[in-house]
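Kindly inspect both lines:
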Amino acid sequence: PDHSRRHRRSRNIPAIKASYYAGISNVIANARRLGITSPLDNVNSFALGTNPIPLYQMVGAYQVFADNGVRVPPHFVLNIWDNYGHQLYHFDPNHPGGTQVISPQVAYMMTSVLADENARADEFGSDHVLSMWDWTLPDGTHPEVAAKTGTSDDFKDNLTIGYTPDVVVGTWS
């Protein structure tokens, strides 16, 4: 692939400047509110997305945008049964116990930016694997699908996180 086009359109410098403008402690505090618990020692690498943050924490952070600013902690165990068939624990998905950590307006703005197909086409071309233009729901509407990609400098690590109001998916290769 032609990586020179990708580097010409890099948005790294604005990300670093925005983190300094907002204040490093504010950026880290927001990351913590979104559920990032990994060490964030180097704010430049955090702004560039190169801090080693586990995929489940990143998916959890984007889940906040999908849920209008409500953070629902991840639940890795949904049911526990004993050897007699008695249910000892059940996670109720209808009452996940979320907390409002950012305003619905900020979550909406983030989703609006991340769902902008035209902006994504600028980086990947008009017909690409992240394109959601052809998705149609049974009622004939098109869902708003947000997505964010990231690639390490040596193209060794590639990350994509995408979401709708109903599901958040993260992939790493």
About this structure: Helices lie at 3-8, 12-22, 24-33, 43-47, 55-66, 104-114, 117-124. The chain is about 35% helix and 15% strand. The first helix runs from residue 3 to 8. The first strand starts at residue 70 and ends at 71.
